[in-house]
């Protein structure tokens, strides 16, 4: 059952260009996504495609100058800013992409303990530190005294002790050593198997295919495809969107063929399909109308040609 639904989400930023002139730049457009209990949805896509902004929109932590439209529902009820504040870190937890989200003035053991909702906080914090190979002495340290990898393990620990029903992990693994990374991924799987919904934002398609149930592919501020993980196999011929196939084929273990061109920047998005300028199947119509997301073979795709 779906626990979190994002419908027709768009996000823009209003920025001053020169003097008092304002410019509105749309960074996410008409994005739909849903998270199911018991499932891991991996979100992949290149840098700047809008993955972190989606996470921040769900948590209600976008910067003040962000303009948001569309609806986000949690447990069948619309998420308002007040509800987001009440659920944040409790029912909906984030492992942020940046370690600057730790409170600089609070010892890290105490920070992790504040995230515990049920049971013995001290005991849970000690156990989770052990699980992620953090020495008991780390408890007493402040964030600035941690290495990048340690800070990341503290962030993962905080989310893990929260007992949240929805976990959004934004690039949780870079800088972790392979053993700790494997442990974290295994734990995401366990969380999902115990009924939570997990959104794993990652550049690492390989890890995503190992633990996710579905993969959403982002491109230039929206999803171009949502596919069951089994479609990411062999040469990717079961994938629905030309960009997903290109992304899959560009991996070193596949053909290692790069995609010519680059993702358009917000503010200079093409009129029609955002991928059309790089797509070998593009026809005139692709350049004029942005395709709608539609269901196809047990997944979703935003391409008029996909069959
Ligand atoms: N506060 C902001 N003001 C203006 N533009 C922003 C702001 N935050 C993000 N953006 C723009 O929104 C777009 C999406 O950013 P986002 O951080 O969501 O990308 P991402 O997919 O998470 O990338 P990465 O993989 O590098 O983390 C980028 O073009 C970024 O420059
Ligand atoms: Ni990001």
TrEMBL record:
Subunit (UniProt): The complex is composed of two ATP-binding proteins (NikD and NikE), two transmembrane proteins (NikB and NikC) and a solute-binding protein (NikA).
Domain ABC transporter: 4-245
InterPro entries: AAA+_ATPase, ABC_Ni/Peptide_Import, ABC_transporter-like_ATP-bd, ABC_transporter-like_CS, Oligopep_ABC_C, P-loop_NTPase
Principal EC category: translocase
Keywords: ATP-binding, Cell membrane, Ion transport, Membrane, Nickel, Nickel transport, Nucleotide-binding, Translocase, Transport
Main subcellular location: membrane
Protein name, entry field: Nickel import system ATP-binding protein NikD
Species for this entry: Brevibacillus ruminantium
Family named by the database record: Belongs to the ABC transporter superfamily.
Alphabetized SMART domains for the sequence: AAA
Any Pfam family matching the protein: ABC_tran
Reaction(s) the record says it catalyses: Ni(2+)(out) + ATP + H2O = Ni(2+)(in) + ADP + phosphate + H(+)
EC nos: 7.2.2.11
Membrane topology label: Peripheral membrane protein
Molecular function per GO: ATP binding
Localisation: Cell membrane
């Amino acid at each position: 059952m779906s626990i979190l639904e994002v419908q027709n989400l768009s996000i823009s930023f209003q920025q001053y260009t020169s003097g008092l002139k304002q410019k509105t730049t749309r960074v996410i457009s008409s994005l739909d996504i849903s998270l199911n209990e018991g499932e891991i949805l991996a979100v992949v896509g290149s840098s700047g495609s809008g993955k972190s902004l989606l996470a921040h929109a769900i948590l209600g932590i976008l910067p003040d100058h962000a303009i948001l439209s569309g609806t986000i529902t949690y447990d069948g009820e619309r998420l308002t800013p007040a509800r987001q504040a009440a659920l944040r870190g409790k029912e909906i937890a984030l492992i942020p992409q940046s370690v600057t989200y730790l409170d600089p003035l609070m010892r890290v053991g105490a920070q992790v303990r504040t995230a515990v909702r049920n049971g013995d906080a001290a005991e849970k914090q000690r156990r989770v530190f052990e699980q992620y190979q953090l020495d008991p002495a780390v408890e007493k340290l402040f964030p600035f005294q941690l290495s990048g990898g340690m800070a990341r393990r503290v962030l993962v620990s905080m989310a893990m002790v929260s007992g949240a029903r929805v976990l959004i992990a934004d690039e949780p693994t870079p800088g972790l050593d392979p053993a700790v990374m494997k442990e974290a991924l295994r734990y995401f799987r366990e969380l999902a198997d115990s009924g939570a919904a997990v959104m794993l934002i990652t550049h690492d398609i390989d890890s995503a295919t190992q633990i996710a149930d579905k993969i959403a592919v982002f491109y230039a501020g929206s999803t171009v495809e949502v596919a069951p993980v089994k479609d990411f196999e062999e040469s990717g011929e079961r994938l629905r969107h030309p960009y997903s196939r290109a992304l899959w084929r560009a991996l070193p273990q596949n053909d290692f063929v790069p995609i010519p061109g680059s993702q358009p920047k917000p503010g200079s998005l093409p009129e029609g399909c955002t991928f059309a300028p790089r797509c070998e199947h593009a026809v005139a119509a692709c350049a004029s109308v942005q395709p709608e997301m539609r269901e196809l073979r047990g997944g979703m795709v935003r391409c008029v040609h996909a069959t």
